[in-house]
Design a protein that fits this description.
Blueprint (H helix, E strand, L loop, with lengths): L1 H16 L20 H7 L3 E7 L6 H9 L8 E7 L14 E7 L2 H9 L1 H10 L8 E6 L2
Antiparallel strand pairs: 1-3, 1-4, 2-3
């Protein structure tokens, strides 16, 4: 019991000497190195990332994945990735969206070229046969 009291007193003294920073006060952010290769990080900065989520009919995922991978043939599409949902036990996961396609563009001009390219227009027509509803998109600029 005495050791717990001593720990409580020590923590209280430390807290008085180091008060918490108010939420509205700016705090210098720590530098966190995400990857060992800074050039890899810098290569993505400023790129437009286009993400598309698909809710796919049963037994149609393989066909849609094959069709999505063809988008890599469009000039201006960079870093195309296509994958299936993986259940990791997070209750917040969008588990009803079975496939995701993500790609980067150097700029909005390349993105517009992709949007109007015959391969993409064909994917939109083909995908309609595989989907349970319209795709969901999310776009952002890499910081």
């Amino acid at each position: 019991m005495k050791s717990r009291l001593l720990i409580l007193v020590m923590v209280s003294i430390w807290a008085c000497k180091n008060p918490p920073v108010p939420l509205n006060e700016e705090v210098e952010e720590p530098i966190i190195k995400v990857t060992k290769d800074q050039e890899e990080i810098d290569r993505h900065k400023g790129n437009l990332v286009h993400t598309v989520y698909f809710k796919v009919k049963e037994n149609k995922t393989d066909s849609l994945i094959i069709a999505c991978k063809k988008m890599s043939n469009i000039k201006g599409v960079k870093y195309l990735e296509v994958g299936r949902f993986k259940d990791l036990g997070d209750p917040r996961a969008m588990s009803d969206l079975s496939i995701v396609m993500q790609m980067e563009f150097k700029n909005q001009t390349d993105y517009k070229h992709y949007q109007n390219h015959p391969l993409h227009l064909n994917l939109k027509k083909t995908a309609a046969n595989y989907l349970l509803g319209p795709p969901i998109t999310h776009d952002f600029i890499v910081e």
